[in-house]
Amino acid sequence: MVMLASIDKIYREKFNGEPLLVRSPGRVNIIGEHTDYNEGFVLPGAIDKAIYVAIGKREDAMIHLYSVDFKESHEVAISAMKPTKTWATYILGVASQLLQRGHAVGGFNLVIDGDVPLGAGLSSSAAVECATVFALNELFSLGIDKMEMVKIAQKAEHSYAGVMCGIMDQFASMFGKEGSVIKLDCRSLDFEYIPLKLDGYKLVLLNTNVKHSLASSEYNVRRLQCEQGVAWVKEKYEQVNSLRDVSIPMLDECVLGKDPVIYKRCRFIVEEIKRLNDACDALEMGDLKTLGQKMYETHDGLSNDYEVSCKELDYLVDAVRSEPAVLGARMMGGGFGGCTINIVQEDAIDDLAAKLKETYKKDMQLDLSVHTVVIGEGTAIQKLPGSIHFNQ
Ligand code: GAF
Fold it and tell me: Of 70, 26, 82, 32, whose CA–CA distance to 332 is shortest?
């Protein structure tokens, strides 16, 4: 509420009007990594850390943006919008997608702030995109449904940020539900909410505080490697359209002899899709121990076969492997930095955090940030207490 009140105030001071307020959260993913763009399943949830925007219409055809975090403004005419290398690109990318689809977006003012740690693999960029598309949809009464908004937000990331991401992050931010993770079928886009019952345990994020520059370039390379693998399998098995349709024997037959690296990448994805389904069964049966073991297996695959981990992430996972209070841990998100996600016994969190902060500093010469997260609601309009309604 503090952040909401503060952007409301900043908006009024800067732009002299009453803003519409929107909140859109970051996300965690329990298991199912790099499976979204391979038409597999993912199991994310929205978290209690979010991006907030305050937005209002302008009389002219200009976009005026202000980031509280960066203390920076960005002003551009709608007709002159183009990608930037700054925070503004995610907002402009959404506006540009809406215009390209023929939606009547006029000039607007927008103030943005948030408490999703940036570059930590918690999808702050997807949260910005979802907050923006939701806010513009409301402001200009565009009548777009949530699923379409997710697709627009994802496309903004492709076209303005240059990362050919899957749909998971934007989906989780938009459709998040308190207390539940979302099992999303990234082929059909069917989804179900699964209550995350962690009795006595909590989700703890350990932030490496590094983001290696390889993150977006290697992400796009992995995507291409998966597509190449599918193309080779398809030469023999015409019905195959994605790694979702592929089995390990097919990879052995069609990919292994051609390129052992592409084979490893594809094998990881095929295994990860199966692992996610097993992990969901375990979660639904309340078997947190098995779920945790699957998370460790995912980490090992991401590190050794998909090769998107880094020494800091491996360090943090290895550091908890033999901790009885930790059921499972793995790197989360695209990779090359950001956070590990851990299932940790509630009473042991403080001691574990203190110990890891010390050893991480000593061995990696870096500060470790520790966040306990709760699964929260998805993108929504916010009201400040005492505000009656929003007048456009
Ligand atoms: C990033 C992407 F944006 C997601 O679409 C997903 O592929 C993830 O990496 C890996 O699972 O967060």
Answer: 32
The residues pairing with 326 across neighbouring beta strands, listed in sequence order, are 344
Q: Which of 328, 310, 319 is nearest to 356 (CA)?
A: 319
Compute, in angstroms, the gap from residue 122 CA to the centroid of ligand 1. Answer: 10
Q: Is the CB–ligand 1 distance for residue 39 below 6 Å?
A: no
Please give the chain's pLDDT, 392 residues, in tens: 789 999 999 999 999 999 999 999 999 999 999 999 999 999 999 999 999 999 999 999 999 999 999 999 999 999 999 999 999 999 999 999 999 999 999 999 999 999 999 888 999 999 999 999 999 999 999 999 999 999 999 999 999 999 999 999 999 999 999 999 999 999 999 999 999 999 999 999 999 999 887 778 899 999 999 999 999 999 999 999 999 999 999 999 999 999 999 999 999 999 999 999 999 999 999 999 999 999 999 999 999 999 999 999 999 999 999 999 999 999 999 999 999 999 999 999 999 999 999 999 999 999 999 999 999 999 999 999 876 554 44
Residue 295 · residue 31 · CB < 8 Å: yes
Beta bridge partners of 341: 205, 330
Q: Compute the distance between CA of residue 56 and CA of residue 15 in angstroms, rounded to an integer.
A: 9
Nearest atom (ligand 1) to Cα of 37:
7
Tell me if 152 CB under 6 Å of ligand 1: no
Q: Is the CB of 166 under 6 A from ligand 1?
A: yes
Interaxial angle between packed helices 88-100 and 146-156, expressed in degrees from 0 to 180 and rounded to the nearest 10: 120
Is residue 36 within 6 Å of ligand 1 at its C-beta? Answer: yes
Angstrom distance (rounded) from CA 380 to CA 388? 17
- Which residue among 165, 170, 211, 302 is best mutated to probe the pocket of ligand 1, counting the most ligand atoms within 8 A of its Cβ? 165
For ligand 1, atom 7, which residue shows the shortest CA distance?
34
* Nearest-atom index, ligand 1, CA of 36: 7
> The tokens of 354 are what?
């203190």
Per DSSP, the residues of 230-249 read HHHHHHH-TT--SGGG--HH
169 tagged catalytic: yes
Evaluate: CB of 299 within 6 angstroms of ligand 1: no
- Determine which one of 8, 169, 305, 314 is catalytic: 169
CB 23 within 8 A of CB 47: no
